[in-house]
C-alpha cells in the first residue's frame, strides 16, 4: 500500500491552453512541480490515484500554475478543477541533516525548553523569509517563527519539538 502526501489543490483554470492554478501545500514546489514530475489526483468515487505528468510550471501571483501532458485545452483542464494533488512517499528525496518535510513537523508535540507543553503543530505558513509554525494550544493558536532563537531541537523520530519562548511570542491568555 502506498502512502500519499497532499501537495496542493487545483482551484481553477488559467487561460485557454490547459493551464491550472494550484494552491500549493508543498515545501518544495520547484521540485514537486518540475517539468516531467508525476503528480496524482485521487478519484473520490473509486479511491484510485491517477497520474498527471507536469508539462510546465510557473509562479503567478500567489498561485503555482501547472500544465499537464495531454491536457492542452481549457475543457480538459476544467475536469481537474477542485481536485487535490498528491505524491507518493516513495517520490521523496532524502534531505540534508537539519531539514524536514512538512509532514514530519505537522502533528508534532511542541514543548518549551523549560518543560512546558505548548500543543501540536497544526500547520506551517510560508509568508516570507522564514516559515511560521502554527501551534494548536488549549487557548488561542500560537505562531512560532522557524528561527534558531526559537526552535531549538526537532526530533522527527519521537515527534517532538523543543522551543525557547522569546518575549512577546505568547499572550498570557494561553
What does this structure look like?
The protein has 174 residues and is mostly beta strands. The chain folds into two domains: 4-91, RimM (Elongation Factor Tu (Ef-tu), domain 3, Beta Barrel); 102-163, Roll (SH3 type barrels). The chain contains three helices and twelve strands; from the N terminus they run ββαβββαβαββββββ. It has helices spanning 29-32, 74-78, 102-105, and strands at 4-14, 19-24, 38-42, 49-60, 63-68, 84-88, 109-112, 117-125, 132-136, 142-145, 151-155, 160-163. The strands form two sheets. It has a six-stranded antiparallel barrel. The model has no long low-confidence stretch (mean pLDDT 89).
List the helices and strands and how they pair.
Layout: E1 4-14, E2 19-24, H1 29-32, E3 38-42, E4 49-60, E5 63-68, H2 74-78, E6 84-88, H3 102-105, E7 109-112, E8 117-125, E9 132-136, E10 142-145, E11 151-155, E12 160-163
Parallel strand pairs: 7-12
Antiparallel strand pairs: 1-2, 1-6, 2-5, 3-4, 3-6, 4-5, 7-8, 8-9, 9-10, 11-12
